[in-house]
Amino acid sequence: MTTFSCWTNIFTAYAIAEISATACGSAIGSRDTLSVANYEAARLAMQTFRRDGGDPLGIVPTHLIVDPTNESAARAILSRELINGGESNPNYKTARLVVAHTL
Question: Would you tell me how many other CB atoms lie within 10 Å of the CB of residue 45?
Fold first, then answer.
């Protein structure tokens, strides 16, 4: 996958984004609380985006973009290899965390 440095549609407290040649700057933004359930729902929504003809876009979210107030929650979702007393974290390193101070 060719990667570009372009950012668009980052407009809320947190967003997950995929940056590629197929969908430069695709993002989902949310004002909901950043939680494991909301993060997973946003990833699934992006991964199931379809073209007008019904073909999948093939988006793989690569970044979780948060404002400073959501940094701790984001790190808990992405950076902990083990959760709940030793269970594997299915979201461990599924996206790169970006803290955007201008959100």
Answer: 14
The two tokens of residue 33 are: 């609380």
Instruction: Tell me the backbone φ, ψ of residue 71, rounded to 5 degrees.
Output: -60, -45
Q: State the average pLDDT over residues 92-100.
A: 92
Closest by CA to 51, choosing from 26, 82, 86, 16, is 26
pLDDT at 24 over 80: no
Cβ contact 16:43 at 8 Å? yes
> Residue 44 pLDDT > 60, yes or no?
yes
Give the residue extent of every domain in the chain.
14-99
How far lies 98's CA from each of 22, 65, 83, 95, in Å?
A: 21, 5, 22, 9
Phi first, then psi: give them for residue 13, nearest 5 degrees: -60, -35
